[in-house]
Amino acid sequence: MKIILFLVSTFLIAQDKKIDFDPNQLIDPEPKWPIISSPLNTENLLINNNELDSTQIIIEGFRVQLLATKEASKAEQLQKGLLDNLNQNIYIVYEAPNYKVRIGDFIDRRKAENLRKEMIKEGYTSAWIIRTRIKPKVE
What we know:
Layout: H1 2-16, E1 59-69, H2 72-85, E2 90-95, E3 98-106, H3 109-121, E4 128-134
Antiparallel strand pairs: 1-3, 1-4, 2-3
């Protein structure tokens, strides 16, 4: 009997409390925005006039892929090593989960095949040709 009396009194006391909520009195705290001191790198402000050309030609072509790895550092290391030896554009393309090192911008597959054979002679035995969008050199 004491338990029932206790439970009934608890429910009655709990019902007496009235909560008022007025959304007009609610004040949201002001967010603390980060301070941006220099959003642009000053080195990037000096752009060659040729780079300002808004018309880029992008067509289907061929590149030679030398490496596909999950480690970005390996791809960057290979790119740095090839920059000194090759007269071709070198690209690192990220397609989850791999970083792919590709070289060249060829419209003609035969030229890409010649570069692939040259890369195999240099020791990149897994080199293969990939069809992709390229930015050919405009002369």
